[in-house]
Amino acid sequence: MKQPIPFSDPPALCGLPSPYYTPSHVAWRRACRSFIDQNLTVHAMDWEREGLVPEDVFHTFAASSMLVPSLPAPLPVGWLKRLGIHHVLNTVKVEDWDYIHTAIYTDEMTRSGLQGPAASLTTGFSYAIPPILKFGSQQLQERSLPDLLLGKKRICIAITEPNTGSDVAGVQTTATKTPDGKHYMVNGTKKWITNGIWSSYATMAVRTSGPGPSGLSLLLVPLLNHPGVSMRKIKVAGLLASGTTFIELDEVKVPVENLIGQEGQGMKYIMTNFNHERLTLAIGVTRQARVALAVAFEYCLQREAFGKTLMEQPVVRHRLAKAGAMLESQWAWIEQFVYQMTKLGKLEADVELGGLTALAKAQAGIVLDECARCAVLLFGGNGFTTSGRGEIAERKVSPVEFSPKWLMG
């Protein structure tokens, strides 16, 4: 049996024992990898270069219920079964799903080494649907969730603005009730909105009263072809295929029934999904670091200079080992978090793991930076090309330095 390239997969996939993975998780990894390799990974680099994942790919994933794993665990079993979704890939029952299954899915979705193609498919499920599930009225859920959960319509999360990035409490987009109290009139701009350009709806942070966090609410705002909504795609340095969008809202009329939960609770609702968002981001970014380091390791085994392979140079082995130690320490930390999420209730996990999960996400960015820089250094001139074997490493360093959008929040 051919030995895997060091660091190319987590230790548990390389034959080492692990206390975390049950037969259900092992079977899910196998089925998940097969589906994603066929429908995403093999094409991901081409789609990232083109800046677009074909629309039929989203529908392929939706038809196989392969967007559902982006939702926080445990899954919304009642809703899924109502819609005829009982298993994911005929491998895991929706009622048996846990955060380890989620981690495996997130890791596999980024195995191309790129965030953009995966983000183009999963962002709405990860970030925009959960507030509706948790806080939306029954009437709002009945109107929106069937089409969203089945992938018939797409949705995005719209929080950030030109002058408001991670400072969520500073959101300026307003939602003012009409005199008859039946609608909100929404005015403002949203920027860096992943998937916005394709979305029928946005779960949007709006200001319904005074300044600060207590004035924020969440509103389900129609986007595509809706009067008063203008959208354009933004050119960005990384995540080229993710559909980063600038949205202008001019007297956009939204029914008051589209309010998610209660007025003034928007900040609270946004923060309740932060653990899920941070942990899945940390998992994806750590896989990107793994891809960068593995391709560098493989290159150093083959590339010859001064009469020997690069791997025979002690300084090269030292640099790879340093990055590898950071990578595997980060992955062990993530596995620990994921396991703890399977044992703690939602409220307890928010309190006990919230701050640490934020640190894990930040540390994932540091690990990616180290592994990407290591790869570019060892690839030499090939690491600064946008084609050939060094392309995957080059695409890591540029976003890390200039467009760390997935590390915000």
Structure description:
The chain has 409 residues and is an alpha+beta fold. The protein is built from 12 helices and 12 strands. The strands form 4 sheets. It has a 4-stranded mixed β-sheet. It has a 4-stranded antiparallel β-sheet with strand order 4-5-9-8, with no helix packed on it. The longest helix is centred in the C-terminal third of the chain and has 34 residues.
Descriptive tags:
409 residues; alpha+beta; 4-stranded mixed β-sheet; 4-stranded antiparallel β-sheet; 12 helices; 47% helix; 14% strand; globular; disordered C terminus
What is the element layout, followed by pairings?
Layout: H1 23-39, H2 44-50, H3 55-63, H4 77-82, E1 87-88, E2 92-93, H5 99-109, H6 116-135, H7 138-149, E3 155-158, E4 174-177, E5 183-193, E6 201-207, E7 216-222, E8 229-233, E9 245-255, E10 259-260, H8 266-272, H9 274-302, E11 304-305, E12 308-309, H10 314-343, H11 346-379, H12 391-402
Parallel strand pairs: 3-6
Antiparallel strand pairs: 1-2, 4-5, 5-9, 6-7, 7-10, 8-9, 11-12
> Quick one: how many beta strands?
12
Sketch the topology as an H/E string, one letter per element: HHHHEEHHHEEEEEEEEHHEEHHH
Biggest sheet: strand arrangement: 3-6-7-10
Helix content: 40-55%
Oligomeric state of the chains in view: single chain
Task: From the alpha carbons, calculate the radius of gyration and give it in angstroms.
Answer: 22 Å
Shape: globular
Structural class: alpha+beta
Number of helices: 12
Main sheet record: 4 strands, mixed
Q: List low-pLDDT spans.
A: 397-409
Strand content: 5-15%
Q: Termini separation (Å)?
A: 44 Å
**Global mean pLDDT:** 92
